UniProtKB/TrEMBL annotation:
This is Integral membrane protein TmpA. It comes from the Eukaryota. The chain crosses the membrane at residues 20-41, 103-123, 135-156, 176-193, 205-226. Coiled coil: none annotated. PANTHER family: ENZYME, PUTATIVE (AFU_ORTHOLOGUE AFUA_8G01222)-RELATED, TRANSMEMBRANE PROTEIN. The keyword Lipid metabolism does not apply. Keywords: Membrane, Transmembrane, Transmembrane helix. The lineage of its organism: Eukaryota, Fungi, Dikarya, Ascomycota, Pezizomycotina.
Length: 438
């Protein structure tokens, strides 16, 4: 295997510390920083107007919500699919990173929280100067600021990984509450502004820019829950460590769904893959024992689970803009890989490396056979038969060179995924994989 390109510091900066996710975060945050200084400059004589700050905060919160909507994510992927195979590899490589859109979400969310902090400072100043003497407005301001601080704190990667359920519940419940408080505060501010005018409270509200940002935000918070429904599955226990859930609905290509048995508490996303042609319609998903919830489901599967929204396009869908690719996966990562490998519309050749303990015994003959149907020369590694763990970096490089693939896609645990992607990218190989940003 060749040496890594460039110096260590440059490699770390480019592929780790300043990856696409962080670049998007930086762009969004920089735009807001410029806006902040422009606002200060324009308000140097008259003082900062709290309505402008409220508009900036609500606009960023709206952007953070919109970029997480299923239909917008699917649209982003479909736009990137339009890039032809004849386009330069450099362009296709850049477009394939579309799955790091979460940088926009975190950048806008963090900026929105900082704008709201500034709004609270401005309102506190106005309260102290008796410009807007309203205890309810000040109470809602500090209540919402507290909630935004909680959301930002629990979204920090280290806290998020330590207790994902706490992060998810805080993000959802505190987020809903914060938006509700923002609405209450908007009404309270409108009531203050209408004093001495001929406008009603409603007439004042519709003249406020934050009203429209909040309206769009609220609609999109509700939208996924409008499609909350129970979906019927036929469970097939593959082993004590894996479960396959079959369903009859037809899913969009390369997509996944999140399922739950308690929709207000936790959701678990899984990639879906189609049933082979000739075996009926529908598809299935694989659940592997990776925590308390998955172990409970495998031990006692249900025939119905909650789903919401629309199926969301996944990382592997971007393999369709490359002439050929190598897919590297471990354990139950084979499920998401099958969403691409078994898609009837797929045209390009694919090679597969799959490492798992007792693959056929754990995941069943059908899954193993499906891998070999796609790639008769697939490298399927039974880690129970090995004296030591396989060198996945070396194996990936060797098959990448042997197959002449244009890109490598990795679906594994966070540690190995990051390791393989860094190992390939630092040697000039286009490499992609999930980033666990939510």
């Amino acid at each position: 295997i060749p040496s890594k390109r460039h110096g260590k510091i440059f490699r770390r900066l480019r592929h780790t510390y300043f990856n696409v996710y962080r670049r998007l975060f930086s762009v969004v945050f920089s735009v807001n920083l410029i806006g902040f200084f422009v606002l200060l400059w324009q308000s140097r004589e008259t003082g900062v107007n709290h309505l402008n700050v409220a508009a900036a905060s609500s606009a960023n919160i709206m952007a953070a919500i919109l970029i997480r909507q299923d239909y917008i994510i699917n649209l982003l992927f479909r736009v990137c699919w339009l890039v032809p195979l004849s386009a330069p590899l450099r362009l296709r490589r850049a477009m394939a990173k579309v799955y790091e859109y979460g940088g926009v979400h975190s950048g806008a969310g963090f900026a929105g929280a900082l704008w709201y902090l500034f709004l609270t400072v401005v309102l506190t100043r106005d309260y102290a100067m008796a410009v807007m003497k309203s205890i309810p407005i000040m109470t809602t301001s500090y209540a919402m600021l507290t909630l935004l601080c909680l959301i930002v704190a629990f979204a920090y990667p280290r806290f998020r990984f330590l207790s994902h359920n706490v992060f998810e519940n805080t993000h959802r419940l505190a987020g809903w509450t914060a938006v509700g408080i923002f609405w209450a505060q908007t009404v309270l501010i409108a009531q203050q502004l209408r004093k001495g005018t001929d406008h009603s409270t409603w007439g004042t509200i519709i003249r406020l820019l934050p009203f429209y940002f909040l309206l769009i935000t609220t609609v999109h918070l509700v939208l996924p829950w409008v499609r909350l429904r129970k979906m019927t599955f036929h469970p097939e226990r593959l082993s004590d460590h894996a479960l396959r859930l079959h369903f009859k609905e037809t899913m969009a290509p390369f997509s996944g769904i999140a399922i739950s048995d308690a929709p207000l508490k936790e959701w678990h996303p899984f990639a879906t893959f189609p049933t082979p042609l000739g075996n009926g319609g529908g598809g299935s998903l694989i659940i592997s024992a990776a925590g308390d919830w998955t172990q409970k489901v495998i031990a006692n599967p249900s025939t119905q689970y909650w789903v919401r929204g629309v199926p969301r396009t996944g990382v592997l869908s971007m393999a369709c803009i490359f002439r050929s690719c190598l897919i590297v996966t471990t354990g139950s990562g084979i499920g998401p890989c099958l969403s691409f490998l078994m898609e009837p519309s797929r045209k390009q050749p694919c090679r597969v490396i799959w490492s798992a303990p007792c693959p056929e015994k754990t995941f069943g003959y059908d899954i193993t056979e499906a891998v070999y149907r796609v790639d008769p020369r697939a490298l399927v590694i039974d880690t129970r038969l090995s004296q030591k763990r396989p060198d996945m970096v070396l194996l990936t490089w060797q098959m990448y060179v042997e197959s002449g693939a244009e890109a490598v896609f990795v679906i594994s645990n966070p540690s190995l995924t990051k390791k393989l992607i860094y190992a390939m990218e630092s040697r000039g190989v286009p490499a992609f994989g999930p980033i666990w940003d939510s």
